Amino acid sequence: MDHRSGSRSPRASTGGPAQLACNGIRRTSCRLDHGQLYLTNKRLLYLGDKQNRTIRLSQIVDFSVYNNGVEIEKDRGRSPFLGMAGENDVFAALLGRAISDSAG
Fold first, then answer.
1. How many angstroms separate the CA atoms of 49 and 25, rounded?
2. CA–CA distance from 62 to each of 33, 57, 71 (Å)?
3. CB atoms within 10 A of CB 14
């Protein structure tokens, strides 16, 4: 399902994110790391086996939820795809609420 920050209403989508180049091969996704994702009232924290990342909620312009994960669109830089196994609709609801609450 897609979630647009303007409307805050999800729309069904079975597709995944745009194709990426992974090791010179066009694929729909490639695993770069494995780890835990935490959502706080100020940021998304990714604690991976290889590296850790933080995305402030104020940087998130939009996000799209798919059956295999969530793509985060930021105000600048790359838009990461966070692969997940299930409960994506619950995560989308929590993320949408956290973004709304942090905006004011």
1. 24
2. 23, 10, 9
3. 7
- pLDDT tens series, the chain, 104 aa: 333 333 333 333 444 544 444 444 444 556 678 899 999 999 999 999 999 999 999 999 999 998 888 999 999 998 888 888 888 889 999 999 999 998 87
Q: What is the pTM of this model?
A: 0.69
Q: Is 53 helix (H, G, I), strand (E, B) or coil?
A: strand
- Domain count along the chain: 1
CATH number at residue 84: 2.30.29.30
Give me the DSSP letters along 58-72.
GGEEEEEEETTEEEE
Burial of residue 15 (number of CB atoms within 10 Å: 0-12, 13-18, 19+): exposed
Residues 58, 55: Cα–Cα separation, whole Å: 8
- Structural domain including 49 reads 2-103
